[in-house]
Amino acid sequence: MSYRDIASPQVLAWACTSVGARMPVAMAPLALVFLVRERPGGYALGAAVAAVYVLGEIIGAPVLGMRLRPDRARPHLAAGLGVGAGGFAGLGVFPDAHPLALGALAFLAGAAPAAAAGGLRALLTGLVPERAVSQALSTESMLVSGIWAVSPSAVTGLALGVVPRAPLLLAAALMASSVAGLWLLPAGWDTQNTGEGDGGERAEKSPLRLLAGAWPLFVTGAAGLALLGLAELVLPALLQQRGTGVGWSGPMLTGLAVGGGLGAFLHGLRAWPGLLRTRSAVLMVAVMACVTLVALIPDPAGIAGALVVGGMLQSAVLLVRTLSLREALPPGAQAAGYSVMYAASGAGYAVTGSLAGGLLRVTAPSTAILCGVALTLALTAVGWWGEVRRARRSPHGADTAVMPGTAGGPAAAALPGAESTAIRGGCDPEDRL
Prior knowledge:
Layout: H1 9-36, H2 42-65, H3 73-93, H4 99-111, H5 116-127, H6 133-161, H7 166-181, H8 199-203, H9 207-213, H10 215-241, H11 249-267, H12 276-296, H13 300-328, H14 331-362, H15 365-392, E1 400-402, E2 414-416
Antiparallel strand pairs: 1-2
Helix pairs in contact: 1-2, 1-3, 1-5, 1-6, 1-7, 2-4, 2-14, 3-4, 3-7, 5-14, 6-11, 6-13, 10-12, 10-13, 10-14, 10-15, 11-13, 12-13, 12-15, 14-15
């Protein structure tokens, strides 16, 4: 399959809806800082309100994601996005409100639409053929990378060039438009075609037990985002340590986002060999090597290059984690799984922010990054061990392989020996991984 195989009017409608739902998420933290920066203690207040927003996301994603029903997801998603749009509008209309009121609105804006990321991903995978899922997820990753690359400039330009409340009002309008876009998409997604021999047994388990069984994937997903998050948060201090203007941090972080989009595109171009868990571990080690270079290289050009390559590899890690999660959960629980992964990544990023702040008080920025690499290495090892242990306890005693020619369809046969791929000649039989 190629990217041409996922081109359709419905996928285009999904992309427009996804931009409306996700652009506000990317804009929110910086927009909240600009909203209150001219008030007494403005930057501290802005950071606190932004932290409450992220906390809302972390809590709302798993709680609301587990309540999504595949056959009637649209009303749930529309309600969450609508309430989220109201939260953003409230922040934009009442910028001088009491800090507690701002915090409540920020929490609402973060929590209410938090299940949308998982629901939209499940909708996307239902719009494309089964063997084109990898290309669809790569396209989603490219879209998200583009959103995160554009958002900081958009927020800064609107807040400084128009009024501080403008980014939040735009976020409210975009999120409201995504509610309308949901009616251009299916009301839910199919849960019948699992393509796996043990799908019936897994479907009988409670969603909570299914998600608890996939904990190694959430650990690795959180570790992957936390690692580059640490490098991103410490970058200005690192540049200052190297005697480079901190203003270069903006272009370098843009390069990081562009690298993520490029990595997602390259991942979807071909099939990749190896077990999913092995590929994830190898990619994580490569990302750690890039972040280590960021900490050690004295030249700004070298730091920028390491960030771009690290972004490319990190996007591949997240794609492999998503494919692994899709294999680990039945279709009815996948949206909840995506939402929990979203929350785990957000939690990892939040912990990274606290870790960075604490380490920078007692050590050099380069040392703080290396401490983060050591912590991520430990988390990656724990996640890999958990996946190996989970595979050994699976109903077949090993990971699942798809027989050549089945293409993951209803007639797919489950055999012991490999994790969702049967490698021959350097590619998988589905030509999608």
